[in-house]
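If your schedule permits, I should be very grateful for your opinion on a structural question. I have a record of one protein: its chain in single-letter code and its fold written as discrete structure tokens. Kindly check, if you would, that the fold set down in the tokens agrees with what the sequence suggests. I remain grateful for any guidance, and I place the record below:

***
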Amino acid sequence: IPAYFSLRKLSYNNYGGGVFLERPLLPKVHAVFIHVSHLRRSAIWYSQLLGVPINKSEIQSPVYNLPIEGETFLTLDDHKYDPFYEPQPYKNPAFSICSQDLKKTYNWIRSEGYEIVSDIEVEGDFGWFNIVDPDRNVIMICGKLM
């Protein structure tokens, strides 16, 4: 164990084994926030993109959690109660969305009229490309190349 760890208490990691610094934080992400200007429009856009159900009566400012798989929430936030908020789109992806077949996904995204801002980039049998949402936030889509 490196010397800088010796001053801290170590404990067993229940999230995959091994040791980690004892602390009150868990080694997982709770939510990814996407800052939007129009909550309803963005909720519908993301729901259509991801193919998840949407109950329009549940879209209420300031946040909407998309019903995605897994433990991490994808939260849209319109900052209704933040008078100092100034929208600034993500110019680089802050998160990525999974694809089972990247080329098929790319073609589907294009045919559905979503705005693609970078073509597929490849590293071995894995690749990615970027699109933008209605607020011009850049979103990465990545996955295996079939």
